[in-house]
Here is the input.
Amino acid sequence: MHSTDIAHARTPEPATGDRRRWFALAIVMTAAFMDLVDVTIVNIAVPSIQRDEGATFSQIQWITAGYALAFAAGLVTGGRLGDTHGRKRVFLVGIGGFTVASALCGLAVNPEMLVASRILQGAMAALMVPQVLSIVHATFPAHERGKVFGLFGAIVGLGAVSGPLLGALLTEGNLFGLEWRPIFLINLPVGVAALVLGSRFITESKAPRALKLDLPGVALVTLALLMLLYPLTRGRELGWPVWGYVSMAGALVVFAALVAYERAKGARDGSPLIELSLFRVKSFAAGIAVQTVFGVGLGVFFLVWTLYMQIGLGWSALRAGLTGVPFSVAVSVAAGMSVQQLVPRFGRKVLQAGALVMAAGVLIYLAEAERYGLGITSWQMALPLVVMGAGMGLIVAPLTDAVLSEVPREHAGSASGLINTVQQMGHALGLGLVSVVFFGVIDERLAPAEVGPAFVDGFTHALGWVAAVLGAIFLLMFALPKRPAQHVEGAADAEEAPVAGEKEPELVP
Here is the structure.
């Protein structure tokens, strides 16, 4: 019997008659929605921030990458803090801190303060987000969780669709003359309401035996990523100095030190930040590579796409936001079809088809951007965006299940946390690479008439890189199990294994 099975046997099922659990669900879903929207809402406002605050392009990258990096570095630790100190308590600290950080972002007086506030916001999201599914596990009995996870999927889809539109409306609306600032300030009333209601309606829960924190592991991961990302984002502005190459090479040394430390910690107390034994499972190791590389591709595309439309083509934030609607709708529709109808029949081939379809959409977009230049219209972008969105939808929904399907159940929590972490790390790395694949082909000093053509060239160059990334993902997917939906004996069960921690939640009266 697995250790999680023992936990199941002695953990009382949450009561089905308590109506408060639906209020608790609404509160944690709101928090998840805030995080999802916050990522996409900022992208659409980036050109306005750059114009109004005089931010450099490397600062623009850090406004987005700083959030992703802090979020990635803190995810596993955030989950373990919830397991140890109570998920309700850590969730409330996270949402309170997220609200304060949002206020600091909205009140930022210069780009440096905005970058620092975004890093704080990402760190607070890392406390808040891992508790969401753990609280669901603690609050709802097993037979109701399918319905709840369906709602969660709908919230994810809604966040993807509404983020860019909400960002565009708030930026264009220029409420009270605040320009881009309402995209952050809108979190204040939502966060305060979630804090007040969460303290009343969420039931406290802890893990029976929580894993210990691994702060040295977090420090090593963060240091390695900073040593890699900082030279990437600043290198072009500084003329690619020697120290930048030394720092990036040193990052590999720090990663090696991390592996050695994690191996020793695992042998010592069984609670490393990264469970290295998971990488002996071929499908998991390949899936982690897919998640990381996919995050890189998305990080590059979304920032470059926004800059291309608003600075290169001179479109308003609202027009750019509306142009992205076909993409978001296609992602949501394809995601629903892939999980419910396609993957049960065709397995891994669905994910590989998604990579090829998305790459095809990228190449169609590249051809249209070169053909129409500055005269391209929103409706001409609709076809490649729908194709790209359909491809992405085929990948994102079933990918986590494919990666976890051969992971032993006792490591399901660690594996899930690691999947989310590497995707965010990949996203941060992709944002850092924008300096190379986009700004690297644009001259630093451009006359106003040269900006548009230069950004079109930069966009098509970046799209070529994104297509190559998707080709790499297609090849990596051959190592995933052919039938990811059919779990092997003793493998991770997505319905039963808590995402943030190792053990089934235990209710605390």
Remarks:
- Confidence is low (pLDDT under 50) at residues 1-12, 485-509.
- Residues 20-53 form the longest helix (34 residues).
- The two ends are 28 Å apart (CA to CA).
- The chain is about 75% helix and 0% strand.
